[in-house]
Amino acid sequence: MAAVGIVGIGEMGSSFVERLLDAGRTVVGWNRTKAKVDHLLARGMQWAASPADVARQSDIVLTMLTNGAALSAVTSGPDGILAGLSGKLLVELSTIAPQDVIALEERVVLAGGRLVDAAVLGSPLTVRQGKLVIMAAGGAAAVDAARPVLEDIGPRVVALGEIGKAKIMKIALNLNLPAQILALSEGLLLAVKSGIDRSRALEVMLAGAMASPMLQYRAPFIEEMPAKAWFDVGMMQKDCDLALTLGRELGVPLFATAVSREMLSAARGQGLGERDFAIMYYALANAAGLREAPRVAGEPAAAPND
What we know:
Number of strands: 8
Order of helices and strands: EHEHEHEHEHEHEHEHHHHHHH
Low-confidence stretches: none
Helix content: 40-55%
Structural class: alpha/beta
Largest sheet: 8 strands, mixed
Shape: globular
Strand content: 5-15%
């Protein structure tokens, strides 16, 4: 069974490691802050001294980083993944610009490795439930080599063609997320300001056809925010920017994405940027004059703003 390396072990990366360990895989990991993965080391994940050492000790390396700059930092230089990738397979899972992963392929080939461009559809909860969908792009042989590992993380792997297509599909999917939260927030605030209890209104809104799977698990964050964001405002805004850039390149107007991005800017301006992007409800509530403060799991209830 192939040993799997992983570089970039945040919320999603941690859930990947747990699934791989549950499948009986040898997992070697590196993260910028080691203390954040102590719980995975206790479960049996092996620690590597550098991203290069992850590649040397693994057959397949997964990367899950915040942006293109972070990916470049862990792949470049004597301690970077490419320094240890000869004869190995790199599966790049970050949400980054298509041109960044296309450029990465050239560097991977020069290093003697192979690349799979991949992306996921889901959340840490989706991973734990075994319902994650994984999109993979690149050479057929490379995708086939990665498939057993990817299927240990999520049961459905969809091949999309050449390098870059998985990133494009991910961007196309993610622009829907803030737009759905914003539309739900607008409707919820109409109900709340008319005197309907927020919890009751949210219950009704999530009981009908409008409630996508994403809204089913994320809209309850309006009632209680997770202490640690699953996907914070800055990350969601970065994905909106990727979509807007791609839209300009392809001549596709993205009206809902542009409005959603501005509401995320409002959330950041109100000091809510570190929260999960479902905090958009509170940014809109503040604009509507309600001055509500979010309740956060594990923290005492906040007093309403003056």
